[in-house]
């Protein structure tokens, strides 16, 4: 079934939204959704890498020999990860320190790799750009949603640019469990189940 | 010094368990834990590759990247070293130790994109470990990975027999179970 150009973009927002529909890229999903700020920072970094690696790979898809394509994809992705790393280090140092090793680990995040293999190496530049952008924004949205629940329930407030915004009233008893590792797994599991219920026809 | 390394060994296996506390390597964790057999194979392959990758990336960092002032290329250098290493190990095992190859073979290509491998190499550098500490951590982290993977595979085989609600089948219930398992590892940390 051929998709129109707009559908390439919008499929990443609902029909194939990572990490719920495409269960890929779980490690950062679990690790950095403890605050909303971290989540969208990570989301933007992934969107950038995904879009540009998709553009580069689809532009070079005729030249890359199929036998060494995996290595070629890794180099393309690693290049843009390096760019993101250096830019973040220069302009958003605080966020860079908080995300720590999860920024270089975008290289082995399955989403850019999976899209390179399944999409960018088969379709033209325009479609690949939209695909990367759509999936990246979808990923940012789902990370932010997950982080919203975790941060709100764990601390009772959302902190944006060092200003806490209260979500629940003062009587709310913070439930710290959710920002820690076990809470991350359980929260993601429950969200996944919820998405399955919503998506069921 | 010996006691320090011993403490490091235990903290890497249990307290800072790579999978359940540091959240690295979750894709193969959910992918290969459906059967005990594949879980054991994956765990062994990760230990094997990570010890080699740890040594090599540590040497690349301190003998190549630092002297030539190329530390900003670390991500690219490490991932290429790991990809090449995995390919090389695969060819070497196929030729000289076919028995081990048939055991680990199909898991080896997956390891390149296992973020636990690159993650541990980066942790070794980030914490500025010396050679012995690096050796202990590159061995202990994958052992912790294997321990969690095998425990989880055992639980998951039982879940297959249970009746879970339809939307929660497979990955969703797997993640909730992983959360429970993570809670037990969390206890080592002495939370509060």
How would you portray this structure in words?
- The complex is a heterodimer of chains A (201) and B (192).
- The two termini of chain A are 20 Å apart.
- The model of chain A has no long low-confidence stretch (mean pLDDT 83).
- Chain A is built from eight helices and two strands.
- Chain A has a two-stranded antiparallel ribbon with strand order 1-2.
- In chain A, strand 1 (157-160) and strand 2 form a beta hairpin.
- Chain A has one domain (5-148).
- With 201 residues, chain A is mainly α.
- Chain B is mainly alpha-helical and 192 residues long.
- Chain B has one domain.
- Chain B contains nine helices and no strands.
- Chain A binds chain B through residues 23-27, 30-31, 70-71, 74-75, 78-79, 81-82, 85-86, 100-101, 104-105, 107-110, 113, 180-190, 192-194, 196-197, 200, and chain B through 20-27, 30, 72-76, 78-80, 83, 112-115, 117-119, 122-123, 126, 165-168, 171-180, 182-183, 185-186, 191.
Overall, the morphology of chain B is: globular
Total count of helical runs of at least 4 residues of chain B:
9
The radius of gyration of chain A is 18 Å
H and E order of chain B: HHHHHHHHH
| Class derived from helix and strand content of chain B | mainly alpha
How many separate domains of chain B? 1
- What order do the SSEs of chain A take from the amino end to the carboxyl end, as H and E? HHHHHHHEEH
Unreliable stretches of chain B? none
pLDDT < 50 runs, ≥5 residues of chain A: none
The number of distinct β-strands of chain A equals: 2
Distance separating the two termini of chain A: 20 Å
